[in-house]
Amino acid sequence: MIKSAILTASVSRKAGGLFEAILRQVQAHDRQKLDTRVFGLWDEFSDTDLPAWSPVPVAAFKPSGLKAIGYSPWFMKELLAFEPDLTHTHGLWLYPSMAAKDYSRKKHRPYLISPHGMLDPWALQNSRWKKRIAYAWFERSHLCGARCLRALCVSEARSMRALGLKNDIVIIPNGIDLPDIENAARLKTETIHDLKSEKQKAENKNSPWQEQVEPGKKVLLFLSRIHPKKGLVNLLKAWARNRKSDEWVLAIAGWNQGGHEAELKKLCTELQIRFADIREEKVENGKRKAETEASVLFLGPQFNAAKVACYRHCDAFVLPSFSEGLPMVVLEAWAYAKPVIMTPECNLPDGFRAGAALPMEATVAGVAAGLQELWRLSDTERMAMGGRGRALVAERFTWQHISRQMEAVYDWVLGGGTRPGGVEWADMKR
Predict the structure, then answer these.
(1) Pairing of strands 282-284, 287-289
(2) How far, in Å, CA of 41 to CA of 73, rounded?
(3) What are the boundaries of each domain within the chain?
(4) Residue 51: phi, psi to the nearest 5?
(5) Cα–chain-centroid distance for residue 180?
(6) Residues in a beta bridge with 3
(7) Are 132 and 387 in contact (CB under 8 A)?
(8) Beta strand pairing status for 296-300 and 275-277?
(9) Do domains 2-175+398-425 and 182-396 have the same CATH topology?
């Protein structure tokens, strides 16, 4: 049995999509073949989210000393005590990179790295001086010493080569679990054909925006980190141009990072977009009053059942990002058979080829054009597009499929010989 250690900066929801990507990959591994343990840094959400990793053992360590990089002396002590055959670092720029490199040097064991888009040009420019310091200090030697780099897509592999990295690069995307959506599809059909039905209203009661969206209006969902790289400023400016508030509502859900949500609300005011935060209920004459005239809704973070409800009850999904590794949220939207509009920078060109997504450029004009294309689709056309997305996920992006590919790469890293077939390799110029 192979002993593998997964090293990551966060083992909680604070990692955003990276949390779900790592968690489900290790849970899908063949436990008869791999003895996998996860080593990460503790944060304020770790205690709440640690049970989600079951049955995979997880150790989370509180940073001390050099807290800016997440240094923890217990991290290396526990790693040495476990003594894995190989380590796999997910993400960059923090102490787990140092730990992987130091463990490999001490024990002469190989390691892999999954940067998850953190070497893409846009990502490198964000907080670039801090990253330049980290790159010179430890990240360059960490990257160059990896037996194999895992890219999520061809674009990410090109970014690795652009930095001069000569390692073998395997291209393995993120995965997704296919939910049972038979009931959700039935409810959505009833919503279309029987909007005033009391039965429909009762069954649709778990919608996150049930009190704010009037019957008959459609919901375009954004669900990701509330961060400048996600392109929400351009989305709101494009939304103001199109003014479809009589037919569509934009629901923005996600984790507020660096106060960006406040900036977006201020922009809504400047653009004269009526918005509401569903976490802030209005009270008039001692009675709660729902805001039903808003064109943009801010939902806040959505996890577990609340997150599922967002996907089940939306009519389409949007991701106008400037940079992504491979966005889990798009795979999730497709898994719930939702049509998607996204930028090429989301690095899922298969979605465009399969007719599961509409492309839009990462500019105000580009996003506005993408929205117009969505508005022109009929209900039937949108549902067909969502169905193609779900079929694409079933064919290429399930966790069982992804984990088998990764296990083959682990075998190769430890045993050498010919690179395994059945996975894509970046054989571009080194």
Answers:
(1) antiparallel
(2) 11
(3) 2-175+398-425, 182-396
(4) -60, -25
(5) 21
(6) 35
(7) no
(8) parallel
(9) yes
Amino acid at 402: I
Tokens 């004459």, located at residue:
285
pTM of the model: 0.76
* pLDDT per residue rounded down to tens, the chain (430 residues): 899 999 999 999 999 889 989 999 999 999 889 999 999 999 999 999 999 999 999 999 999 877 789 999 999 999 999 999 999 999 999 999 999 999 999 999 999 999 999 999 988 998 899 999 999 999 999 999 999 999 999 989 999 999 999 999 999 998 988 998 764 444 344 333 333 333 334 334 567 898 888 888 999 999 999 999 999 999 999 999 887 657 999 999 998 988 999 999 999 999 999 999 988 765 454 444 556 689 999 999 998 899 999 999 999 999 999 988 788 899 999 999 999 999 999 989 999 999 999 999 999 999 999 999 999 999 999 999 999 999 999 998 999 999 999 999 999 999 978 889 888 999 865 4
In 3D space, the residue among 306, 368, 312, 304 whose CA is nearest the CA of residue 336 turns out to be: 312
Q: Kind of pairing, strands 168-171 and 282-284?
A: unpaired
Structure-token pair, residue 254: 């996600």
Q: How many residues does the chain have?
A: 430
Q: Which residues pair with 219 in a beta bridge?
A: 249
DSSP letter string, 128-139: HHHHHHHIIIII
- Can you read off the two tokens belonging to residue 391? 């079929």
Q: Is 2-175+398-425 CATH 3.40.50.2000?
A: yes
Of 39, 152, 20, 57, nearest in space to 95 by CA: 39
Class of domain 182-396: alpha beta
